[in-house]
Amino acid sequence: MTDSFDISKKVYGAEEIQKLLGIGRTKTYEFLDEVYHKQEPFRVIRIGKVYRIPCKPFDKWLSGE
């Protein structure tokens, strides 16, 4: 069974956040854990040990909107 949409266009993974911010793996996970608990300045979804970050809110935060 294949999905009719590409989820990668809707959410970033931790590795993508790491590359976008230009920080190390450990700092990325520390930052995402902190943001997950606050749900600010953008939303973070955690499923087990996997983080997913909705693209639109993150992109707005990164661009200063």
Describe the structure.
It is a single chain. The chain has one domain (9-63): Arc Repressor Mutant, subunit A (Orthogonal Bundle), CATH 1.10.10. The protein contains 3 helices and 3 strands, in the order E-H-H-E-E-H. It has helices at 14-21, 25-38, 55-63; strands at 11-13, 45-47, 50-54. It has a 3-stranded antiparallel sheet. The protein is globular and about 35 Å long. The N and C termini lie far apart (39 Å). 8% of the residues are buried. The model has no long low-confidence stretch (mean pLDDT 91). It comes from Extibacter muris. This is DNA-binding protein. Keywords: DNA-binding.
Supply the number of helical segments: 3
**Secondary-structure element order, N to C:** EHHEEH
Helical residue percent band: 40-55%
- Cα distance, first to last residue? 39 Å
The major pleated sheet works out as:
3 strands, antiparallel
* Topology, number of strands: 3
Task: Give the percentage of residues in beta strands.
Answer: 15-25%
With strands numbered from the N-terminus, the spatial order across the biggest sheet is: 1-3-2
CATH architecture: Orthogonal Bundle
What is the CATH class name?
Mainly Alpha
Structural class: alpha+beta
| Uncertain stretches | none
Number of domains: 1
Task: Give the mean pLDDT.
Answer: 91
